[in-house]
Amino acid sequence: MSVTAEELLDVLERAAAGHALTVAQLRADARQRARGEVHLSDREFDVLELIAGGLGNQDIAAELFLSPNTIKTYIRTLYRKISVKTRAQATVWAVHHGLVPAGEAEAEQKDRSEGA
Questions:
Q1: Across 49-53, average pLDDT
Q2: Domain spanning 5-115, CATH architecture
Q3: Looking at the whole model, is its pTM more than 0.85?
């Protein structure tokens, strides 16, 4: 994940001021930065994060309370917007843009495979 000097300074200033930074806040910030590059909807970001977490279409559909066909449509649309063709490329894009920390995608996939 690349971070600009201004973004790093902002995080450090918040930490120095005693503001706790949560994972949710960091992800929201990452989404906002990614929005500057691509125009994904909130639902497309949700689907992308779940893909990066290792979920299949059926699991994503269950998680988001949508049909598998709706998920397929979101996936096709977001792949086109971020210029990727595979789940692996989408995962790399998500990690590179800070939507999912690099180790977290691997850990989530491992947790799911152990639970299955």
A1: 91
A2: Orthogonal Bundle (1.10)
A3: no
